[in-house]
Specification:
Low-confidence stretches: none
Number of strands: 3
Shape: elongated
Largest sheet: 3 strands, parallel
Helix content: 55-70%
Order of helices and strands: HEHEHEHHHHHHHHH
Strand order of the largest sheet: 1-2-3
Mean pLDDT: 91
């Protein structure tokens, strides 16, 4: 599904309305050029995770350097082979998908190791740290996350779905479960103790959620640690 804009200003408005998976922009445009578009995207916490492909007739290393500094994913000089552009887009989308899967299924890997983009890693680490500060509070809500970040509920939902394919509520649960797994490794706690420490009032729901995420129950994990 493709949304078209005649200039950067219109493109920014559409981006704020449609939340695209990626943006392809020219450098030279009326009203707002591609570089200014990228600057405004990078300054917006709601949108700065979206990869940007910039195409241009200008063969200028200064522009290319500036594009990197403003967060452009790829700087492509015209004329170019359209199939090559499609291949680069496809590769980027595939890479994003792998990042999401690795984040969701590799609890023992640090976020910064998965997301090499420092801005994206910092955003997720900030969110994780906030949740972990209040991890034992069962009533921690999506509203609390939004207030902490200064984002709307819709904006946070779209950003997290794009980055890690988790809703804000599931992101809270996911972070709690990663914390619980860490407690099992580092402390001599039983399943009920870990469930409560991780903010789950129902140990049975905790065990079910734990197995759904990691593929093994808390008891099975404890036994594997003893082996």
């Amino acid at each position: 599904q493709v949304f078209e804009a005649s200039n950067g200003k219109e493109g920014l408005e559409i981006t704020r309305e449609k939340w695209p998976d990626l943006i392809i922009t020219d450098l030279i445009m009326p009203e707002m050029d591609g570089m200014e578009l990228c600057r405004q995207l990078q300054d917006d916490i709601n949108l700065n995770h979206i990869p940007v492909f910039m195409v241009t007739v200008l063969s200028n290393r200064d522009y290319e350097l500036e594009s990197i500094e403003t967060g452009v994913t790829a700087y492509i000089e015209k004329p170019f082979d359209f199939n090559v552009l499609l291949a680069r887009i496809s590769a980027n989308l595939t890479w994003q998908k792998k990042l999401r899967e690795r984040y969701r299924h590799h609890a023992d890997v640090e976020t910064a190791e998965i997301f090499k983009n420092k801005r994206d890693a910092a955003f997720l680490q900030n969110l994780e740290s906030f949740i972990l500060e209040k991890v034992s509070q069962e009533n921690l809500s999506v509203h609390d996350l939004c207030r902490h970040l200064g984002m709307s509920r819709t904006a946070l939902y779209m950003k997290l779905k794009n980055m890690v394919d988790l809703s804000p509520q599931n992101f809270i649960i996911h972070t709690r479960l990663k914390f619980a797994r860490k407690l099992f490794v580092e402390k001599n706690y039983n399943v009920k103790e870990v469930a409560y420490l991780a903010g789950f009032s129902n140990p049975k729901y905790f065990s079910t959620s734990f197995k759904k995420l990691f593929g093994y129950s808390p008891l099975e994990f404890l036994k594997s640690l003893e082996a």
